[in-house]
Amino acid sequence: MRLFLALMPPPALRRRLGELADIAWPHCGGRRVPDDSLHLTLAFLGEQPEPRATEIGDWLARLTILPGQWRLDRWGGFRRPGIVWVGGAEGEAPLRDLQYQLWDGLEGMDLTGRPKHFAPHITLLRRAPRQPGPALPDVSLTWDYTRVELIQSFFTQGGSHYVSLARTTLPE
Ligand code: 2AM
């Protein structure tokens, strides 16, 4: 099972992010990520056997995270795989703390893959031949997040399809 931990945007923010993908596409090209699949990856776990998914899901369901706010105000890209994303210019310390805390727990279960660098981003376009430029409008969105989800990724003809397997407990 191909797994990752992510923050999934609430529906209204998901729609706004989808609108940004529509705005970026004529400039950058590539394959637009469907609204349902937009997310922020906190920990990519790769292929894992099914019992591992259960173990990770049980661990996640017992966790409560510190709610936080992420201000999205920046276009960005990873030129080589042709990714176009939105992220934050600053104020990412709470997300970094969250990613750090999650990897501590995952490593406690002997999972590996903690990245050397964490660059929080929401991918809008994949395999885009052009990177975002000054013609794109300013981004100003706020994401109030409360829980992390364990997501299983399936490859389909239309791209990746995601299913949520487990989530952290909401804070009281
Ligand atoms: P991306 O959005 O930058 O492509 C599910 O595949 C998620 O995990 C995606 O958000 C993707 O990030 C990320 N991901 C995919 N393959 C990865 C890898 N080999 N290492 C780290 N993250 C990966």
From TrEMBL:
A UniProt-annotated Pfam family: 2_5_RNA_ligase2
Which InterPro entries does the UniProt entry name for this protein? Cyclic_Pdiesterase (IPR009097), RNA_CPDase (IPR004175)
Broadest EC class assigned to this enzyme? hydrolase
Q: EC number(s) of the enzyme? A: 3.1.4.58
Assigned keywords, A-Z: Hydrolase
State the span of motif (HXTX 2): 121-124
Write out the catalysed reaction: a 3'-end 2',3'-cyclophospho-ribonucleotide-RNA + H2O = a 3'-end 2'-phospho-ribonucleotide-RNA + H(+)
GO MF entry, a single one: 2',3'-cyclic-nucleotide 3'-phosphodiesterase activity
Q: Which Gene3D superfamilies match?
A: Cyclic phosphodiesterase (3.90.1140.10)
Q: At which positions is motif HXTX 1?
A: 39-42
Catalytic-site annotation from UniProt: H39 (proton donor), H121 (proton acceptor)
Instruction: Please explain the role this protein plays, according to its UniProt record.
Output: Hydrolyzes RNA 2',3'-cyclic phosphodiester to an RNA 2'-phosphomonoester.
Tell me which family the UniProt entry assigns to this protein.
Belongs to the 2H phosphoesterase superfamily. ThpR family.
| Record-given protein name | RNA 2',3'-cyclic phosphodiesterase
Which organism was this protein described from?
Halomonas urmiana
Give me the gene this protein comes from: thpR
